[in-house]
Amino acid sequence: MKAKAKYSLSTSHIIMLSFLVAILLGSVLLTLPISSSDGRWVPYIDALFTSTTATCVTGLVTLPTFSSWSVFGQVVILILIQMGGLGIITVMSGIMIAFHKKINLSDRLLIQDAFNLNSFSGIVRFVKKVLIGTFIIEGAGALLYMTVFIPQFGLRGIWISVFTSVSAFCNAGIDIIGDNSLINYVSNPVINIVTMLLIILGGIGYVLWWDVIRVSKIVKKKGLIGLKHLTLQSKLALAATLFLILIGALLFFIFEYNNPATIKDFSLFNKIQASLFQSVTTRTAGFATLPQEKLTNASSFVSIFLMFIGGSPIGTAGGVKTVTMLVLFAGAFSAITGKTETTLMGRSISRQILSKAMAVVSMSFITMLVSTVLLSACVDASALDILYETASATATVGLTRNLTPYLGDLGKLIIIITMYLGRVGPISLAIAFNIRKSNKNVIQNPFEEISVG
């Protein structure tokens, strides 16, 4: 008898399909008349775009969120943002844990891949801490927002505060305040500080949270002395985050200082505040306190670079991730200096990690490049505006130089696909469609020297 061929989905397939199913289900709900503010059917392409940008926590929108959707539609969008930020697999696992369902080995492997963890030891406890920590931080953010939004909007300010807090923590950048993001609050310290903290806490990575808590328990006295007890992963994420925020803020401050369309007429405090916010939000958050289309070319290219890097691993942010870029730079430095091993902070980095970093950056760059070329062919806009749009979509940021509302149906479809690929990860896509080789195949191809560079 011939054995029946059995096909099973890999974890990469399941992760990709979970996001796809959520997007399609969300698009169906958002196209219904009950989801629109005027009670009419929403064009499916716009419903699909909105569902994708919410699930992929991007923030690019073709329809104004505050005026186009009913309360039901906004609730659907918020649920998609929360699921997309945490990850569909994490949310489903949380539901199973809440109902005391057993998390078997395959479920643990799936969660491990969803978070890109190196081990599934203590995975259930990890999911619980992620969910509890997320809701505590989002709740605190909402309460702080209420001090501004309730006096301004009345009871509706409660809903606006909750929505904005979840969106900021999940690095989605979608709001229901108005049609110009947070530009009206560019000089409001409460909105700026709370939003930046939520963005950073969501994007810096869950592992860093627990590592800092662990170190704080070990080191009983306060101060920087405790930093040496952090893991290498945490040290790299923390160092890269602080460096990029500060250097980004400094560059924006310099490039926009005399720009009359942005911060020229601001006080010194507001110039610093706006520059710092721009540096933080480009790390895949998508909120804006400055009109992006009025930034100088230099600031725009700095924004594109920061968007491409994104946040840190195992968090809500997108991009190729801070640690990935550090590993890649360290590998390049080792090659240039003729070293046989790649090191970071006195620790050796394996070839496998270096290869993965190269793959992630390469696939992300290719995704952005192809999207830029395709969008250029169907949208009449400047090259900078198009590149800004595709970089934002690839890194799931949500910032735009006012191009998104003017995309045609084909342009919307290109950005939808780009956002999806940016969220599930180009490397996951490559792995998912890679044909598994049999373990019995140990034959290697012959080596031959080639020239590069």
Summarize the helices and strands and which ones pair or pack:
Elements: H1 11-31, H2 44-55, H3 65-68, H4 71-86, H5 88-98, H6 105-115, H7 123-153, H8 156-169, H9 189-203, H10 206-218, H11 232-256, H12 268-281, H13 297-309, H14 322-337, E1 342-344, E2 347-349, H15 351-378, H16 383-394, H17 409-424, H18 426-432
Antiparallel strand pairs: 1-2
Provide a short characterization of the protein structure.
The protein is mainly alpha-helical and 453 residues long.
Listing every helix as H and every strand as E from the N terminus to the C terminus, the arrangement reads HHHHHHHHHHHHHHEEHHHH
How much helix, percentage-wise, in residues?
55-70%
Radius of gyration, in Å, reads: 22 Å
Give the strand content: under 5%
- Main β-sheet, spatial strand arrangement: 1-2
Average pLDDT confidence is: 86
- Let me know the largest β-sheet: 2 strands, antiparallel
Note the quaternary state here.
single chain
Textual characterization of the structure:
- The protein has 453 residues and is mainly α.
- The chain has one domain.
- 62% of the residues lie in helices and 1% in strands.
- It has 18 helices and two strands.
- A two-stranded antiparallel sheet has the order 1-2.
- Helix 17 (409-424) crosses helix 18 (426-432).
- The longest helix has 31 residues, at 123-153.
- It is globular.
- The model is unreliable at 1-7 and 433-440 (pLDDT under 50).
